[in-house]
């Protein structure tokens, strides 16, 4: 039978954590079929052994579709490959180092989306934990809004992917492969199709550790990555005639350049500072 939900689990070097992640998905209690797509981005550790043991031994192991890439694709390309492997009407996300706590999470979120066709996605609470599972606090300081408008989603007001359930798009734009901030782009694209809503679900656990994508990246490198992402998102919205949203991202690009300028000047990186100063002055009055 065709699954109602495809759960995407991208993983890389999650040998220590992925068993807990998988079990939290397989423990879901639903009145519909779902599948778990595990996309291993050529992990050099024993992630594949953990996954294959669960497939072999778990009573619901047959729900898992597992592949290991022959070469490392990067998070976004790996996500798209997993997305295209699944066939569910709805998509949920749980990376290999995170896990869910509510066994009725999928049921609650699917019910919400089926009863509210104007919503493209829904989300819920999460907490941050360390490598030992100790709770560090509520994710992103505070309660998520009860609703996110289409405009808010398009402008990158982003629920944590771990908490998402969304309607499958016809396709994910290929531009997502060329940026670091793929989650921001995906949410912005989803926002063109509908709004987002909050669902009461026991908080999921988002793990913070040195293996995370951003953990070893400097502030300046993050800003430079964001500039590239904002440019791609801006161009996507220009091509779809969402000019107000495109201008919003143009302003984000300018402000990021300005921040990099001041950081470089503060640290006496004069030549780099002049590069970003030139961009900022050139585009200060830029209009679409």
Structural description of this entry:
The chain has 288 residues and is an alpha/beta fold. It has 9 helices and 11 strands. It has an 8-stranded mixed β-sheet with strand order 3-2-1-4-9-5-10-8, with helices on both faces. A 3-stranded mixed β-sheet has the order 7-6-11, with no helix packed on it. Helix 2 links the parallel strand 2 and strand 3. Helix 6 packs parallel to helix 7 and helix 7 runs antiparallel to helix 8. It starts with a strand and ends in a 5-residue tail after the last helix.
Q: Quick summary of this structure?
A:
The protein is 40% helix and 17% strand.
CATH topology of the largest domain: Spore Coat Polysaccharide Biosynthesis Protein SpsA, Chain A
What is the rounded Rg? 20 Å
Strand adjacency order, main sheet: 3-2-1-4-9-5-10-8
Total domains? 2
CATH architecture of the largest domain: Alpha-Beta Complex
Counting DSSP E segments of at least 2 residues, the number of strands comes to 11
Low-pLDDT segments, ≥5 res: 276-281
Spatial gap, N to C terminus: 48 Å
Task: Give helix % range.
Answer: 40-55%
CATH superfamily of the largest domain: Spore Coat Polysaccharide Biosynthesis Protein SpsA, Chain A
* Secondary-structure element string: EHEHEHEHEEEEHEHEEHHH
Shape: globular
Structural category: alpha/beta
Biggest sheet overview: 8 strands, mixed
The CATH class name of the largest domain reads Alpha Beta
Number of helices: 9
The oligomeric state of the chains shown is single chain
């Amino acid at each position: 039978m065709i699954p109602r939900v495809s759960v995407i689990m991208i993983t890389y070097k999650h040998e220590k954590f992925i068993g807990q992640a998988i079990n939290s998905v397989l423990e879901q209690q639903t009145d519909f079929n779902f599948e778990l797509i595990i996309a291993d981005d050529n992990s050099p550790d024993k992630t594949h052994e953990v996954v294959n043991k669960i497939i072999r031994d778990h009573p619901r192991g047959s729900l898992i579709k597992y592949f290991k890439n022959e070469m490392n694709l990067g998070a976004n390309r790996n996500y798209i490959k997993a997305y295209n492997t699944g066939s569910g009407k709805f998509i949920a996300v749980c990376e290999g180092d995170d896990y869910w706590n509510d066994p009725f999470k999928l049921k609650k979120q699917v019910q919400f989306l089926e009863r509210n066709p104007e919503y493209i996605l829904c989300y819920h609470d999460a907490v941050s934990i360390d490598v030992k599972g100790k709770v560090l606090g509520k994710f992103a300081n505070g309660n998520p809004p009860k609703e996110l408008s289409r405009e808010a989603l398009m402008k990158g007001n982003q629920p944590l992917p771990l908490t998402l359930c969304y309607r499958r798009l016809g396709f994910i734009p290929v531009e997502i492969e060329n940026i670091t901030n793929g989650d921001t782009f995906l949410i912005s694209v989803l926002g063109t199709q509908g709004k987002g809503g909050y669902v009461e679900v026991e908080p999921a656990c988002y793990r913070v550790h040195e293996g995370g994508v951003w953990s070893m990246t400097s502030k300046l490198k993050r800003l430079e990555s964001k500039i590239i992402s904002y440019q791609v998102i801006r161009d996507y919205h220009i091509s779809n005639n969402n000019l107000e949203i495109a201008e919003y991202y143009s302003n984000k690009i300018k402000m990021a350049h300005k921040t990099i300028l001041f950081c470089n000047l503060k640290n006496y990186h004069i030549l780099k500072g002049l590069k970003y100063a030139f961009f900022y002055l050139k585009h200060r009055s830029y209009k679409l």
